[in-house]
Design a protein that fits this description.
Length: 510
């Protein structure tokens, strides 16, 4: 079997601002094209995010493109996100190219350097073009960031490179959506305006007819049709960055899991699956006083563990963590959070900050940061013979590791929590490098039942499923919503596809 010759079609989704809903719309469109029989892949040339993922071949990419690949029914690969920036502080980021760490760069240095990455971007696109009928690209921030346009590799510069039509998305939930869309278009060059073929009003709540006069005026002034008014959707899929609305939830439940919202929090997608459990609430907190209300406290991953450890001390969170640990309730650290639970974090190579910092001293382990990043998918079993999470003992898990450094026990009798030295525990303190532990239904069920039992209550008997199965259902729901509220015929047309006449040219044949 081999592919017939075809020309890959492109569509690009850009936004008026960050968090306008670009990632979700790309995922929904990928799902629709997949359902309609096309081979489709997502693409974002440059992504800035602290939520990342390790592919089967041990390479790192942005979580948003993983989510979009899942929606497209394909395995994620780094060609869908050749450049990933992971902020390390207010001034710079770790630069990851084709899934491997290139190094840390201040923003100004990277701005001058990034034009050298065009060959990597073009190579990634060529790889995808060889496999897929449609590539749905995502922009970053806004195309009207005029101070960044000179060497743009992610918005209009990218659209021009492949001659892609653009959908421009505005967020009505934040207010001022007509000004967002009109102002963005007004700041673009004429060639860039001509590339925008449709406008999308996203996150709408209410009666659409109320918008009609504004839509008519917007179309008259911009000469671009509004191709969709998409309702606000509350979907259980992965968030890309720290603007997540999940961080704003304050509702308490029968069981409360408190995740400490570190300044450099990373991979908080680890906890998305917990939202399935009825009666269990996930709260992200920076307030030490709230820990007294928790039934489980989690120290999550961090992109700058040493700086976040100092933040814990500065704001009194370290004392609150110790007080919580003294209650005997479970305290868990994942990745950077695991490193913080130990006695000391050393950084002889200056990966984060030369020198060392004291940890919380709750686990007798020490961490030495190293320049080589550990990246791998992992499988193993829990070893939990005692303590509040003993129901996990000998249960199989799977996940992935992504960390710079090694954590080793300081005493001989410390018991492994996760396999092959990836985590240890003592009494009610648990540390591990494994991300994605709660994505399996059995683990999720046992964890929630253990927390409820420790509290002496019973949670509602609602089925939980593997996170992968749940997300499949959510992608279908997303696609159906977009089908109902976007002009898909117009979108196919702007890509140059007649789906009733052109399908013969897009099939696989002998």
């Amino acid at each position: 079997m081999k592919k017939k010759q075809h020309k890959t079609k492109y569509l690009m989704v850009q936004g008026t601002m960050s968090s306008a809903g670009k990632s979700l719309l790309v995922a929904g469109l990928c799902r629709i094209f997949h359902q309609d029989g096309y081979r489709v892949a997502p693409f974002k040339s440059q992504n800035m995010a602290l939520n990342s993922y390790i592919t089967e071949d041990g390479l790192e990419m942005g979580r948003a493109q993983v989510m979009q690949a899942e929606a497209a029914g394909i395995s994620p690969c780094v060609y869908m996100n050749p450049i990933l920036l992971k902020p390390t502080d207010h001034y710079g980021s770790q630069v990851i190219v084709n899934g491997r760490v290139l190094g840390n760069m201040p923003a100004k240095e990277y701005f001058a350097y990034k034009k050298k990455l065009w060959p990597d971007i073009c190579n990634a696109l060529s790889r995808l073009e060889a496999e897929y009928d449609i590539i749905v690209m995502e922009g970053a921030g806004s195309p009207a960031e005029i101070n960044l346009k000179e060497h743009d590799i992610v918005n209009m510069g990218m659209a021009k490179q492949v001659d892609a039509p653009v959908l421009l998305v505005g967020d009505i939930d934040r207010g001022g959506v007509f000004a967002q869309l009109y102002g963005t278009i007004a700041l673009l060059e004429q060639e860039e305006r001509d590339r925008i073929r449709g406008l999308v009003i996203n996150k709408f709540r209410g009666d659409k007819t109320i918008l009609d006069p504004g839509i008519a005026m917007l179309e008259e002034r911009c000469h671009i049709p509004v191709t969709g008014v998409v309702p606000y959707m509350d979907l259980m899929v992965d968030d890309e960055d720290s603007l997540s609305p999940r961080f704003l939830r304050r509702k308490r439940g029968l069981v409360n899991v408190m995740v400490i919202r570190l300044p450099h929090i990373a991979n908080f997608t680890d906890f998305s699956s917990l939202e399935q459990v009825e009666g269990l609430e996930i709260l992200y907190t920076t307030d030490p006083r709230e820990l007294s209300e928790a039934d489980l406290v989690i120290l999550p991953g961090s992109k700058n563990t040493m700086a976040d450890m100092e933040w814990l001390r500065t704001y009194g969170m370290d004392r609150a963590i110790h007080a919580f640990a003294d209650t005997g309730k479970p305290l868990m650290g994942i990745c950077g959070g695991y490193q913080m639970l130990g006695e000391v974090i050393r950084d002889p190579a200056g990966v984060e900050s030369l020198g060392e910092t004291r940890g919380l001293g709750l686990l007798p382990v020490e961490t030495v940061l190293a320049e080589v990043k550990q990246r791998r998918q992992s499988r193993g079993i829990f070893t939990v013979k005692e303590g509040p999470l003993k129901s996990l003992d000998l249960v199989e898990y799977e996940g992935y590791e992504i960390h710079m450094g090694q954590t080793l026990p300081l005493v001989e009798d410390l018991t492994e929590f996760t396999s092959r030295g990836s985590g240890y525990y003592r009494e009610n303190i648990y540390g591990t490098y494994i991300h994605g532990l709660f994505d399996q239904a059995r683990i999720l069920r046992l964890l929630s039942l253990s927390l409820a039992e420790e509290k002496g209550i019973t949670l509602p008997d609602k089925e939980v499923v593997d996170q992968g199965r749940l997300k499949e259902q959510e992608y279908d729901k997303l696609a159906q919503t977009l089908r109902e509220h976007m002009d898909l015929e117009q979108i196919y047309k702007m890509m140059g596809i007649n789906r009733y006449e052109d399908r013969e040219d897009q099939t696989i044949g002998d």
